[in-house]
Design a protein that fits this description.
alpha/beta; binds S-adenosylmethionine; globular
Length: 287
């Protein structure tokens, strides 16, 4: 049984009418796949799914957690983190404070990547790190800072590429031990982040679709990686406006490797490598 266009519409409308969530502007193809998974995992028909959505707020919360995609890893796309280390963070070195927002932080690996890098660059102390997601379960894991070891050996390779190696000078090698930042407990199959990293970020539930900036600060850097890929064009533009509005004038935004700013919004940012710097050009139509 596949999720038809009508099933999809009924689901989105039921969710919107019975809760604070609005998935009507998510990418239809990927959302249909997630709805299908919910139906299969829970052995429900679309009619019973919708009826439960209308009558049970706790059920809605758990369905929303199931339809979000939470894949992430430590130093995901190491080349982007090399850009972060050599080309982006140095812009903010002389700031008295650096504000960073991880929007759609999932289980926190992106946040720990940033904290580790900031510490290596002696910037951790003056940085305020905020991390948000629509899904509170993944943020609980992020706060916990514990990840499976055997499934995630790539984390160590990524760490080496970003923290130990220098792509601009292969002779330079910083032999930073992993244990400076996390313990590798092979017995319990866990990577455990050190407390000094775990206590640093402010984690907060936030919905990019329905909420404004509820962190009430402006940002030097916003990472929203592999999130807007699940949104349609209009919603992408809405979220990019939110980020543009809440970046400082010399602020920078990072998207996922397979995400790009299309259409008129491209002129709101200047793309340099993997980074989008806030453009100073003011276009009346956007403000
Ligand atoms: C694929 S993960 C990306 C994690 C990390 N940024 C990375 O690139 O590795 C996407 C995250 O976006 C979150 N998300 C989806 N819709 C959201 C929304 N409307 N507001 C906030 N977060 C959202 C999901 O819950 C999920 O944790």
């Amino acid at each position: 049984m596949t999720v038809t266009d009508q099933d999809y519409q009924l689901f989105v409308i039921a969710l919107k009418n019975s809760s604070k969530y609005d998935f009507s502007q998510y990418s239809e193809k990927s959302l249909k796949r997630r709805i299908q998974k919910v139906l299969t995992d829970r052995q429900l028909t679309i009619a019973s799914l919708i009826s439960k959505i209308k009558s049970d707020p706790d059920f809605v919360e758990s369905v929303v957690k199931e339809i979000t995609v939470n894949t992430t890893e430590l130093f995901r796309d190491p080349q982007v983190w090399q850009t972060m280390r050599f080309n982006i963070l140095p812009h903010f070195r002389n700031n008295s404070v650096i504000n960073i927002w991880h929007a759609g932080c999932s289980t926190g690996q992106e946040v720990y990547s940033m904290l580790i890098l900031l510490n290596e660059m002696n910037l951790l102390e003056k940085t305020k790190v905020y991390a948000t997601d629509i899904n509170t379960d993944v943020m609980d894991i992020a706060r916990q800072g514990e990840y499976r070891y055997r499934f995630n050996l790539s984390y160590l390779d990524n760490f080496d590429k970003v923290i130990k190696e220098n792509p601009y000078n292969y002779e330079e090698y910083n032999d930073v031990p992993y244990e400076k930042y996390f313990t590798l407990d092979k017995g319990s199959d866990l990577i455990r982040m050190h407390p000094f990293l775990k206590q640093k970020p402010v984690f907060k539930k936030h919905d990019l679709v329905t909420e404004n900036n509820t962190l009430y600060v402006k940002f030097d850097l916003i990472l929203c990686r592999n999130v807007i890929i699940y949104f349609n064009y209009n919603l992408q533009c809405q979220v990019l406006d939110l980020f543009h509005h809440n970046l400082y004038d010399n602020g920078c935004m990072l998207l996922g490797l397979h995400e790009a700013i299309l259409g008129a919004h491209a002129s709101k940012f200047i793309k340099r490598g993997h980074a989008y710097f806030k453009s100073q050009i003011s276009h009346g139509v956007f403000e």
